[in-house]
Amino acid sequence: MRKGEPISSIMTKNVITLNSKDELETAEHLFKKNKIRHIPVVKGKSIIGMLSYTDLLRISFADAVDDDDETIDTTVYNMFTIEQVMAKNLVSVPSSATVKEVAEILAKKEFHALPVVDDNKLVGIVTTTDLIKYLIEQI
């Protein structure tokens, strides 16, 4: 394994984001269309929260089994805003953080994605899936 590998080498750089004014229906569409589980919520270039697909499942009757289903029951979504549902107290890492440092954070916490932030600007996202792919490449 490469010691001190920066997280910037494995993070997703072209991050799909939401803003707090977007609808939860939009978020679900993005989750399903892009087959992702976490979307940073931004204001300008600054991250203000993180929305996970699990957050949506907690408030809705979304069919977790059929991810290809394009029909969305928006009744429950209309009762909440993204800001009410998203995680706000985020842990973030700089792009210079090492893969090991990020793995240690994710191993200790109850979340599966970290925003990568440099100079208060979102520059990427790293997930447990990114780490697993990296480890597979090493063996």
Automatic annotation (TrEMBL):
SUPFAM superfamilies: CBS-domain pair. The keyword Hydrolase does not apply. The keyword Glycoprotein does not apply. Keywords: CBS domain. It comes from the Bacteria. Signal peptide: none annotated. InterPro entries: CBS_dom, CBS_dom_sf, Diverse_CBS-Domain. Residues 11-70, 86-139 form the CBS domain. This is CBS domain-containing protein. It comes from Aequorivita ciconiae. The lineage of its organism: Bacteria, Pseudomonadati, Bacteroidota, Flavobacteriia, Flavobacteriales.
